[in-house]
Design goal:
The chain is mainly β. It contains no helices and eleven strands. It is globular and about 40 Å long.
Length: 113
């Protein structure tokens, strides 16, 4: 089992920045991909960014503003700059292993206009 804990969410004005952190614990060997997803009220959960062996991929809506990174085998970060009201959502950390993927409990990001 893998447990994921996110932190760093909060309330910020448009144009501001936040840095989300995700820490994995438990049986973390075998995690080959980590990513961030988000879910706004009334909408489906969507991919924000993923990182695999140092390679990254981003949703078009966040390209140039968000940066995903790995600190070590058990941490992942999402630096969010120039935040917009439409970025308001619950952000979830995801870790993928060959047979299963895991989710954190989510952290709320609210961007005021």
């Amino acid at each position: 089992q893998v447990q994921l804990v996110e932190s760093g969410g909060g309330l910020v004005q448009a144009g501001g920045s936040l840095r989300l952190s995700c820490v994995a614990s438990g049986s973390i060997l075998g995690i080959f991909r980590m990513g961030w997803y988000r879910q706004a009220p009334g909408k489906q959960r969507e991919l924000v960014a993923i990182i695999i062996n140092g390679r990254t991929n981003y949703a078009d809506s966040v390209k140039g503003r968000f940066t995903i990174s790995r600190g070590d085998t058990k941490t992942a970060f999402l630096q969010m700059n120039n935040l917009k009201p439409e970025d308001t959502a619950v952000y979830y950390c995801n870790a993928q292993m060959p047979a299963k993927d895991y989710w954190g409990q989510g952290t709320q990001v609210t961007v005021s206009s």
